[in-house]
Amino acid sequence: MPHILRLDATITPATSASRRLTDRIMSRLIAAHPGATITERDLAAGLPPIDAAWLGAVTTPAGERSPEQAAIAALSDALIAELKAADILVIGLPVYNFGVPATLKTWFDQIARRGETFFYTEAGPQGLLSGKRAIVAMASNGTRLGSEIDFASGYVRHMLGFIGITDVEFVAADALAFGAEASMAKAEAEIDALAL
């Protein structure tokens, strides 16, 4: 049975289009895999940004970290462990000001670690987390998926590929401001058509 990691990043959970989409994706996945293990992380609760102390902590071998460094690295280690355990990622992607929410960017900052999720070769970076699938539920008021002002989906696809996750599918309730009902119906139909 698969292990599913669900990430939500909306700042408006009660009325969120992206959360409505991730709820629907999860319902379909659970119906298809009733014994699946599920890990949920609400990124809107906040993650600490990376800084020089974080870099020092995570680049120090675990057995050599000071107590302070161990405490700093603990969250990043836990986030990476969740990611490594997952077979399927379900990511809610609300678009804020044409890009990803700051907390989702911070999640990528926390998990993109050399030797853990990627390494460098003479040919460039190589992701270490291949064999996983990601389903990204994008929601935006005015930004259409793949448009010239969409700086969110390309970033998410790139970062997932950077760590080795290249099986990435997007469903989008985009341009909600120009017809919310039709946009949500389109996205829900895309979810219902996903092969699970």
CATH homologous superfamily grouping: Flavodoxin domain
CATH class: Alpha Beta
Largest sheet data: 5 strands, parallel
**How many separate domains make up the residues?**
1
Number of E-state strands: 7
Overall, the morphology is globular
Average pLDDT score: 97
Number of DSSP helical runs = 6
Kindly identify the CATH topology. Rossmann fold
Q: Which spans have pLDDT < 50 for at least 5 consecutive residues? A: none
Radius of gyration from the CA trace? 17 Å
Helix content: 25-40%
Which structural class is indicated by helix and strand composition? alpha/beta
Strand order of the largest sheet: 2-1-3-6-7
Element string (H = helix, E = strand): EHEHHEHEEEHEH
Residue share in β-strands: 15-25%
Measured distance between first and last alpha carbons: 12 Å
CATH architecture: 3-Layer(aba) Sandwich
Quick synopsis:
The chain has 196 residues and is α/β, with parallel strands linked by helices. It contains six helices and seven strands.
Provide a descriptive summary of the structure in words.
This protein is α/β, with parallel strands linked by helices. The chain has one domain (about 5-190): Rossmann fold, CATH 3.40.50. It is built from 6 helices and 7 strands; from the N terminus they run E-H-E-H-H-E-H-E-E-E-H-E-H. It has helices at about 15-30, 50-60, 65-85, 100-110, 155-160, 180-190; strands spanning about 5-10, 35-40, 90-95, 120, 125, 135-140, 165-175. It has a 5-stranded parallel beta sheet, with helices on both faces. Strands 4-5 form a two-stranded antiparallel ribbon. Strand 6, helix 5 (about 155-160) and strand 7 (about 165-175) form a beta-alpha-beta unit. Helix 1 (about 15-30) runs parallel beside helix 6 and helix 2 (about 50-60) packs across helix 3. The model has no long low-confidence stretch (mean pLDDT about 95).
